[in-house]
Amino acid sequence: MAVDIDSVLVALGEVGPYQMKIYFLLCLPIIFVGAANLAYVFIAAKPDYRCFIENCDDEEKPEYHEQFLNYTIPLNNKTNKYDSCHHYVKKSNDSFSTCFKDDFSENVTTCEYGYVFDKSIYESTIVSEFNLTCGDSWEASADQSVYFGGMLVGSIFFGYFSDKYGRRKIILAGIACMAISGITIALVPNLLAFQCFEIYKCNGLCWAFSDSFHI
């Protein structure tokens, strides 16, 4: 037997100010869900970087773009940019040597003195904060897998919790988790701690809240 939805809504009461208010209040937290998902694009952005050149770069505030890169950093033939992981070897090991073209040979070596990041677009990302460069660059991509792994776990457990304990409680718990992890994640000292709070954030809001919408 077919059900006339319009007649059911008339019997229950059509959408009014109260329903609109509740819907609006429920939509506010979902903004943070979208922000949490989109934030990774900026948090894990991969800026250009190169080797720190001893006696050439300013130790206090090195800049990515410098004139001496033409003879200190080889070009990457594939990207036509400066090589991110190698630099030309100095002919002299004297720590007080100069920074002229004749000081460098054509031999290359890895970045033993660290890296200089291009901050013209991103002032700081997890790549520059945790030095996810060259051989460790895969960890930045793996972090995204960890993030969505947290969503998978959250979708399993919080959907069950919302049915058992009530959707309002789980929504509030999710918002609290988002607030705590969102602040803490900016203060963590290493990538492992960052990933732990990424999982916590996913479980706490992204899926706890979305599963709580299910009726």
UniProtKB/TrEMBL annotation:
How does the entry describe its membrane topology?
Multi-pass membrane protein
Q: Output the Gene Ontology terms for molecular function.
A: transmembrane transporter activity
Checking Pfam families in the record gives: MFS_1 (PF07690)
- The source's domain of life comes to Eukaryota
Which ranges carry the Major facilitator superfamily (MFS) profile domain?
A: 98-215
The entry's localization annotation reads: Membrane
| InterPro entries in alphabetical order | MFS, MFS_dom, MFS_trans_sf
Which keywords are on file for this protein? Membrane, Transmembrane, Transmembrane helix
Q: Where are the transmembrane segments?
A: 22-43, 170-192
Q: Which GO terms describe its cellular component?
A: membrane
| Protein's name according to its UniProt entry | Organic cation transporter protein
**Gene of this entry:** Orct_8
